[in-house]
Amino acid sequence: MSETNTPAVSTETETETARGVDVSVTIESPAAPEPAAPAVSDAGDLQSSTAAWKLTLSEFLKNKMAVAGVAILVFFILFCWLGPVFYHSNQETTDLLNTDGAPGAGHPLGTDSNGFDIIGRIMIGGQTSLWIGFAAAVIATVIGTLWGAVAGLLGGLIDATLMRIVDILLSLPFLLVVLIISQRYGANTWGLIIILGVFSWLVPARLIRGEVLTLKVRDFVSAARVMGGTNTRLIFRHLIPNAMGTVIVNITFQIADAILALAALGYLNFGVRYPNTDWGSQLGDAQSNLSNGYWWEVFPVGIALVLVVMAFNFIGDGLRDAVDVRLRKR
Amino acid sequence: MSRRNLRVLQAAALVATGALALSACGSSGGTNNNTKPNTASDYSYGTIPAASSNVVPGGTLHIAEDVGAQPNWIMPLTPAANSSVYDQYQFQYLSWRSLFWSPKGSTPDWDYSRSMTDSKPTVSADGKTFTIKLNGKYTWSDGQKVTSKDVLFWYYEYKAAVKESPANMGNYTPGQFPDNVTAVSAPDDQTVTFTFNQVLNPDWVLGTEFAQIVPMPAHAWAKSSDNGSMLDYTQPANAKAIYDYLSAASKKLDTYQTNPLWQVVDGPYKISMYNTSTGAANFVANKNYTGEGKPNIAEIDELAYTSPTAEFNDLQSGKLDFGYVKSDNYPQLGKLKSNGYVVYGLPSFGFNFSYFNFKNTTGGWDKAISQLYVRQAFAHLQDQDAEIKGVFKGLAAPAYGPLGVVPKSPYTPASALTNPFPFSVDSAKQLLTSHGWTVVPNGTTTCTSPGTAANQCGAGIVKGQNLNFTMFYTSTPKSVGQMMTAFAANLKQIGINVTLKTDTFNNIVTNESVVSTPKNDNNWGMADFGGFTESIYPSTINLFNTGGSYNQGGFSDPTLDKLIQNSMTSTDSNALKNEITAVDADLPGLFQPNEDRVYAWSPKLSGSTDSFAAATQFMLNPEDWYFTK
What we know:
Low-confidence stretches of chain A: 1-44
Structural class of chain B: alpha+beta
Number of helices of chain A: 14
Largest sheet of chain B: 5 strands, mixed
Oligomer: heterodimer
Radius of gyration of chain B: 24 Å
Number of domains of chain A: 1
Low-confidence stretches of chain B: 1-36
Number of strands of chain B: 22
CATH architecture of chain A: Orthogonal Bundle
Distance between the termini of chain B: 37 Å
Distance between the termini of chain A: 18 Å
């Protein structure tokens, strides 16, 4: 396997014939198989994509922190979605006669300022936070990947224009923009997904652009171009698949960032409202709750938030190490 | 809000303040706080110590502005959009005093010791002409006496303001003051007469009309430019030019501390700093103050906060000498007490409510909410007992209309002392089903029997229409959110889905109002910014009469209009009670518990008990305060 300057998913070589000219190129794209041709390596042994996938998985599983991250994430997914099946609590009708109740019989982690059971609240709040985080990250990654790929591939004035737009948007305070928009258009689940997604694609765009800048000068891209491949085909069949490692790694961090951003919105009272809730909204009164001694309204949900964000970061780190051949020996 | 006697929006304060009610009791932490606090029979909390005799002149008093309600209008002719007790009572009144002062301590009565007159106006035999005698007690800071001309100056500028736009005065209602004044005169420097176009109830005139009067320095302000000459303000064109000039100056927040206009005051303090970013303001003592009290404290710093807890933390750390405690921090009252701070709370003479929008045509909301049975169903879904116990921790009094159970008023009807719509989901459901609605608990209730018969939905309501709506409420204090969430949860039980949205007090007062922002009419179904303070003569004129300047939901009922008119013109002592009874039944909004306004102050701060008690009614009287040894 050849070593590259980028965190490519895998490498393989093959010879491609284009317009009657034999061209020997290096292709780094298990996801973009070209027409079958005899594989003649010019950079090492041929390795199948399946083997690469297994290698990546193997490397990932060797990372204990990453595995712990997966375990934590799986736990919270089960806790949030399957938990309500086994732990029943009324999360729709408030109980003002039982507000701010300390942990005890019937409410192992107490009740909040509306009389809702804390454990049940964390479950449905987790559903919202994880769902919004995931969906917003997907939106941000899709936008950022396409934007960065187009900028990187086309270059020149288009690249400069697209990236200056990114620069300008990056100069705006993210939280302020999101606060204004969420205030104007309301804070519901889909609204927050769109708001967070649409304003989180800037970093992915830069990352992917950088990736594409290194990929587009590779021989396999040149070959595809010489064969008449359109820019669209180059982006979707060659560049993005080869940058998928970066994309996947980035999406895990995007999810963590989106969850934290949602928590910040909720803390500032711009999160989702009844009958929904999210972890940030539950932390919204943390300051007064802690000073009032209502620790059960802060620590459990706070710990859940920290663990999930930490889990995504562990997973992201693990994935990065696993897909980046330069880091595998660490 | 302003108008001291008129109702002034109490802002979040009230309302939300409800939140304040915190409690007392409270143990700090770790335990459930729903135990009843040690409130007295009048729902007061704590006691005010007697004034100390160890006066230490000077010093700087640090007090707190209410969250989200920072003052932003300095001229004592306050537009509706800027009108609040926080702006008028706790900001403007430090520099310009009202002609008739109320309350007297915490009692809803006239305080003639602080007024510029010693008694009620005298009324002519025909009942139309009212004569006010000034007592000569007040002097402008430049040495000139406050005279009847300053009263007339305020009157003519008021006329110019509302002629330009009714929104220029929060307490203005077309046809009333000053439209109903046919003649004014100043027979001498200490006498003013107002002649009205009809016979009016003298208590109404005093409580609703004259209570607005805040004399302004004609000798210094009657000009249309910084260096212009003094104009004859009795001429409408001049009055308009003067108003435009003063109004423009009041809009320039960054010049508050430098504009010489605002340095001519008759109150105990004058502004020395205003922070345009936060709304924080500093005042220095007016050394030429001649009114009641003496500004012993050299400087007053009004500090701005972004959350009640931030404010409370400053109280705890000793950074604040005087501040409020909202329900968010109720369980920590004990900590304040252990620091030696004095804590006192009492419901204010006013009310909190969430009001309906009768102008929202989206989905036929206006048609639905115009049906009394729908509003009654909503009222049955508000659980005041639970709110008092769980939200206010016991520090609030029930209120089923504009006059609550306390403070007591001679105009409180007997019907106001019991809940006409006790909490009952079944009763709410029954009201809807008996009027042609198919109730789907936790689903969406729809009208399935449109029509105007007694068992049908009502005029304008179409088949399949639902009762879902959007509610805006003030983001602080937390108690408002608790009540709104509980209300939304109760509505959900009968298939009414509420979209909850929060905003600041100032934004809700401005934006969720069919009066000030009609373009938003179709964006909201209910709103809650807090409530209003009441006049000594607590008529709901301007609040619930058709076209009232504070009728933010656009409520209109010809019968109530007539009763309000009677309260204004009739001398029948029952007229006002009849009006209040009708409001209780009409439900222009959902009335909420009247929470205590809880204040805490440093053990080194002392003064007359009345002046501290007045704080629970939103009044600041630092001219009666001083630091002690």
